[in-house]
Amino acid sequence: MTRGTEGEAPTPSGRAAAAASLFPTAVVLVAMVAAVAIMLAGHWTPVGDNGLITAYSLDVPSDLPLVGMPSTLSAYSDRPASQPGPLPFWLLAPTTHLFGAPGGGVAVGTLLIDATLVGIIAWCARRLDATARWLLVAATPVVILTGLGADGITAPFNPNFVVLGTMAALVALWVVLAGDPRGLPWFVAAASIAAQAHVSALLLVGTLVVVAVAVAVRDVRQGGPRARVITRRALPLATIVGLIAWSGPIVDQVAGTGNLWTLATASGSTGGAGTKVGLERLIGAAGVPPWWLTERVGQTFPAPGAVQIVTGVVVLGWLLWCGWRACQTRDRRTVGAVVMLIAASIAAVETSARVPAEGFGANAPANMAIWWPISALIWVVGIRSAIEVVRARRHQRDRVRRPWRGAALPAAASVVALVAAALLVADARPAESTASIQFGQARVVGDAVDAALPPGSVVLIDSGSDTPEELSAAQFLVPQLRLRGHDVQVRFQDFFGYWDHHRRSHPIAGDPDAVLVIVEVGKSVVDLPDGFRLVARYDPAEPPPAFSELRRKGLRGSGDAVMTYWLMVAS
Questions:
Q1: Sign of dihedral through CA atoms 449, 453, 55, 447?
Q2: What are phi and psi of 540, to 5 degrees?
Q3: Could you report the per-residue pLDDT of 221-274, keeping only the tens digit for each?
Q4: Helices (H), ranges, 498-564
Q5: Which residues pair with residue 517 across a beta bridge?
Q6: 10 Å Cβ neighbour count for 206?
Q7: What is the pLDDT of residues 424-457, one digit of tens each?
Q8: Calpha distance 147→150 (Å, rounded)
Q9: Which residue in 180, 175, 237, 252 sits closest to 208, CA to CA?
């Protein structure tokens, strides 16, 4: 035993084992730092959605955002919808401002958020029994490697935060359900990051909050030391954390756009994918091989095959049996784990069922990020229960201790962490193909346009047409000029209205001193409009020296060969 029974202090050997479990976590954190460093050395730059997130984080605190990223649910609502909250922007703001152009600070901020979530998982795992602790410290680096990869821990793309945020919330809730209310503030913090980052986690987090509150109320009514910890420390601290984290969405709902209500009603305005799709996700999460070992956020989910269906039903049945058995033996840790997974699975199935069946939402992998941590926890709890059953039976037959048995799980967890860390570092490499074009374009033209403008200029960006290439090029320029200290507004309109915020919050269209920048793409020769001069040209077929070592194999965008970018500035 590494810990005493419920309510008892841990033994010296238990404290030593808990401290030893920090080794795999430390290995993973070092690998994450190394992977981000390699990505930044490979010219990583915030572009696309990452560029928009960078621009939003630069609005903190002067033009404080109260909602999250624009959401594709806008296509299914009569008014614009955004992700639930701005917490990722708020957390990224310090490093984004500190590092400045060309935007590496947002990658460092992403690393710090992810590292904090890994730390929450490690802290909470130490509050569980030794078997659960070692399985969790082994599962965490695998989730990072398979669910996110090096690019995922570098890019602040909001669905990426859902993976580790949801996993940290689930582990913290497990601690609370196991009888340790000190996990409650950590649950609120991690759940807030996940739910505000992407609407796909909102229903799941809401369900878990209901479970946490119900258990806390029951423990308070029973009285005793645990009730005092809840009322005097855990609940007040969790409330403060929740109010701070959700202050933006609350203010917006009361006196702003009412975004939370829009999200609650938008997905119901069109046909959902259906319960069958949700159950397929659950079977894929529990079956062999589970998705958290084979897929990555950003890929589509294959329909489960016969083997996955059979094994998935067996694994889920095993968990239900373990929960029923634990109720009889009053094993609160196992009961808490099974209750947590039942609540999370029901909410996740409903979330997948509500994803619009038509349009972009039907196959958006971002809407499925919650399944990676749920799948991992299903297997952690299932394996833990199997190990405990085997140990109990062996204990009844043979009371002779074998030292190697106690070292087997720690050794296996450490090996898994080391292998996952090595693969994560190997996955970090300079971006190639389309990404290298985008990074090069953003950095080169950002410097060129900045050099052509007076410091702190007021800039109005427009595109020569509404082609995807020109809209993309215009979008990349916004955060680069913001990072270089310019006030920027956009004139172009993309499909989802991603840059509407920069139309509303930077009203400079009528400013007589505003400098107009026009982006055109794909012309071998550009005819300069009257009063304009060409200030930048980026041709991926002839990359600047800094990008010449990147492969030019497969340079494609939107299905066609990527063309030359031209930028013109009003004289």
A1: positive
A2: -65, -20
A3: 888 888 898 888 999 999 999 999 999 999 999 998 888 888 877 655 556 667
A4: 501-504
A5: 461, 569
A6: 12
A7: 998 887 655 455 667 877 888 888 888 888 888 8
A8: 10
A9: 175
